[in-house]
Amino acid sequence: MSSHEALNPIHPAVLPHLDPVFVQLYNEHVANTPAGPIDLSVLRTKYSVLYSYGTGPAPDCARVYDSEVTGHNGDLIPVRVYEPATPGPWPVHVDYHGGGWGLGDLDTEAHICKHICVKANVCVIDVAYRLVPEHAFPIGIQDSFAALQYISAHGADKFNIDPTRVSLGGVSAGGNIALICAHLARDAQIPLKLVAVGTPTIDDISKYKSAADAPWPSMQSMEHAPTLNWARLKWFDNLKWQSIASEGPTRDAQLAAVKWYANALQAPDFTGLPKTVIYTAGCDPLRDEGETYARKLIEGGNEVAQKRFAGVPHPFMHMDKDLWQAKEFIDMTADHIKATLHQ
């Protein structure tokens, strides 16, 4: 499989837009790494430490343990539970990790989950939804919503949480999952207080042959952005659609299950959704579609907080050791969760 990202010096078109602190961090740890063929199984073993060179220490929770919940079609899927030091029942924040639908696990956003647990004084449940291409898209959404249904129905007894005080969150593909699950929760009358996401994927880029075809200026200006560029986005997108059968009734059924999930802007109803926080990154190809989704929520009459963090690329929140933007992302996310779930 060909490389989806050239790990070498930052493209000159993007360099002036990046925070010098990130540039130094990237140049020290990434820029001189030779680009080679991408092996999915190898990449999966390394993905959760991909940005560890910039990840700061996280506070200790009172208890962290692994468990299981019911996913799509009744199958059990893993979760990791982070408990605060105060006595329960606790409000709960449900996290869906990033990774382009085909990468990521319960270690990917562990440091963010720990920060949220301690700073917001909530139980955090991180969901390990199944991945493409071995499972058909939209398995990540299907598993994640089934997990939310389980937590809402059984979490009081199993996890000592208060099912009337629930928030959702995630980064990148996980942010997409959280946003879509908010629509599904509303329709299923599952109470949600808040959705707080970072750099979410929104659009279906399989429609575009090149970055120039996309309607988003950020897709063109940040086509060669470090850590997530157009080529890498297409690699992830191809992985997603490769999970769908090539022909026959299985393909028909799988495509029917995709519904509007491939492009969250096509959701049929933008009214009656919970308060939503959307954080974008200035040097992220996905920036403009995330901000457009925020505007659609506002047009639907929903409460929205939206902020663009300038000078940083798509996965900046993993680099809180060095980037003030990452520290602020974590602190602001925790503050929103704390204020909303404890009010």
From TrEMBL:
It comes from the Eukaryota. InterPro entries: AB_hydrolase_3, AB_hydrolase_fold, Carboxylest/Gibb_receptor. GO terms for biological process: antibiotic biosynthetic process; monocarboxylic acid biosynthetic process. Transmembrane segments: none annotated. GO terms for molecular function: hydrolase activity. Residues 94-317 form the Alpha/beta hydrolase fold-3 domain. Pfam families: Abhydrolase_3. PANTHER family: AB HYDROLASE SUPERFAMILY PROTEIN C1039.03, ARYLACETAMIDE DEACETYLASE. This is Alpha/beta hydrolase fold-3 domain-containing protein.
